[in-house]
């Protein structure tokens, strides 16, 4: 186990035992099939890693015997992750509106209040600024709160607490306090919720120093990211999407954690690198089907980690394909795509054969009308056109 | 109780003359009446008679004189451009810090805004750490990366040190929540000013603290001016202790260290049993809001000198000590001289400490996680290099 990261029942058993986090014994799935050297506790570990995240399940000898894992919907996967972490560490608690008795507006915390009590699964009044601040204060003393924004857009009210206190306290106190909070909630466009309930806060939060941002897209990475975020000593913002909560997938029975800083290789290819995250992954995969029929071979990477970017995976992909298309749901101006474009240009300029193309949502408030809302975000047809133009 | 006092304050003491005076001073109780009665809202006020001892009074004097000296020295350092940025001084308000410390333990939490130098000292911070942090040197309490508004002391139960007005109140609510969660019979004091008392997050935090019976004590240090705006120009109802409505409140003479001690002791007992309580400390700051504010454009010099003559906290304790024959005038003057020397020595030592190493720019942004190296957004620290 020592030399390889990957799911094994021994590792899972080890991890479950100790609430004190010790990196070497934690099973971490990496999605790249490349040997990486990871400085873990001052000893260089060369990890032999499994291939794609999806394939990792098949490689697992323990579960290869029968039909591996169990089927869950994405919100159930999130709940499983939450529940496992609350079981493992009594310091984990949940703050949010209607998370307790109501079970969560998207059922992510259903049943948890009955199991763990009203103090651990705390129903807060509608006071985002204050309960986010409360979570930060509790985290300063050692608790590990998970804050739910009923809709990510509401967390704009808590921006001061997230940026100044959550993100910066570790630095301004000279390392005395760590803020191991997780801030999570659904965002994104869909369901015709209107402008104020279709916010994408990735672009607003990305400059805050000290926080990590991740976006989940499948039940598998949702559970893994939730667990990793709770175990991380840094404040993590976990972006979920309103339209993805009912996705179904088979996930492993064993305990697993996914790396917070790593991107996921969804479909390896040769012609073009398509970088995406959250719901746009599915639009990209839909476009990929069309593209494959037309003879193209796109490489699709779900970047997952929005801050910091996994430039290792991204860079290796660019080295291979020399063309980049970014497909995101953020606004064009100052979005994740804009930062990613800058990062790639700065770091991998020599490998690029063509300028980076970035497809983002339009810089408009999200309209209510269904047809208009559709055109706010990137559609698969636009992705196909962009790839064709890029690969000419 | 007396021994605990000595141990707690020993770090503040110069281990020669006055230490002997303090340890030899008697611990026999004296009862002193507070200068003013307490005004209460929705609760029965505590008695005006405070139990204290000669040793406690001497330590009050010593600690307050130290704080006063530190703030005045910070004033000179700021004018000499050794302290930059914002510097908010606490002189005039020392009684609040001292009285509070006398009533609680280090396990209780204190969180405040940016006027935090003296509270840091009270919680066990050293003069050297304070001055080094103010001057941005590497041995400051926050490694020089926080500055005047970001003093913290985790092992002393001091949670800062916050620049944004009012933002510390929900944080304090979180501290109280954690104390209730771990059931450890401690309380949290969240301090704010009359300016911050108009922030919405205060009322949100009050609501939550009262809803869940959190051991939270909200302390409004009412120095009557929110930077340049007098309290009657900013608040429809400047009776801040009454603003809690369903939360009981107490108005205290914040220039009387013994009254503050009594109120804090009372508040701690209340909070552990019944949930939040508001304490309004009627106090005053001699300096302006910060070093960039002269402090005289919105108030008269007569007002400032009037308060200094009639209500100064250090003078009040000095008069008490002399009235009860606990020490002589000469001993008190020597005490002050020692304090001055201690502060000067700390400044001299702090001036020698170097600035933080440039690599410190990137430390403590993140706590290093699961051992995976982070690339990208913090790429100045680690640039992606492909094999």
From TrEMBL, chain A:
Its cofactor is thiamine diphosphate. InterPro entries: THDP-binding (IPR029061), Transketo_C/PFOR_II (IPR009014), Transketolase-like_Pyr-bd (IPR005475), Transketolase_C (IPR033248). It holds the Pfam family Transket_pyr. One of its GO terms (molecular function) is pyruvate dehydrogenase (acetyl-transferring) activity. It catalyses: N(6)-[(R)-lipoyl]-L-lysyl-[protein] + pyruvate + H(+) = N(6)-[(R)-S(8)-acetyldihydrolipoyl]-L-lysyl-[protein] + CO2. CDD domains: TPP_PYR_E1-PDHc-beta_like. Residues 72-247 form the Transketolase-like pyrimidine-binding domain. Keywords: Chloroplast, Metal-binding, Oxidoreductase, Plastid, Potassium, Pyruvate, Thiamine pyrophosphate, Transit peptide. Its main location: plastid. It is found in: Plastid, Chloroplast. GO terms for cellular component: chloroplast. Signal peptide: none annotated. Its EC number is 1.2.4.1. Tetramer of 2 alpha and 2 beta subunits. The pyruvate dehydrogenase complex catalyzes the overall conversion of pyruvate to acetyl-CoA and CO(2). It contains multiple copies of three enzymatic components: pyruvate dehydrogenase (E1), dihydrolipoamide acetyltransferase (E2) and lipoamide dehydrogenase (E3). This is pyruvate dehydrogenase (acetyl-transferring). It comes from Salvia splendens (Scarlet sage).
From TrEMBL, chain B:
It comes from the Eukaryota. GO terms for biological process: pyruvate decarboxylation to acetyl-CoA. Residues 1-27 form the signal peptide. Residues 62-358 form the Dehydrogenase E1 component domain. It is an enzyme of class 1 (oxidoreductase). Its EC number is 1.2.4.1. One of its GO terms (molecular function) is pyruvate dehydrogenase (acetyl-transferring) activity. Its cofactor is thiamine diphosphate. Keywords: Oxidoreductase, Pyruvate, Signal, Thiamine pyrophosphate. It catalyses: N(6)-[(R)-lipoyl]-L-lysyl-[protein] + pyruvate + H(+) = N(6)-[(R)-S(8)-acetyldihydrolipoyl]-L-lysyl-[protein] + CO2. SUPFAM superfamilies: Thiamin diphosphate-binding fold (THDP-binding). NCBIfam families: PDH_E1_alph_y. Tetramer of 2 alpha and 2 beta subunits. The pyruvate dehydrogenase complex catalyzes the overall conversion of pyruvate to acetyl-CoA and CO(2). It contains multiple copies of three enzymatic components: pyruvate dehydrogenase (E1), dihydrolipoamide acetyltransferase (E2) and lipoamide dehydrogenase (E3). This is Pyruvate dehydrogenase E1 component subunit alpha.
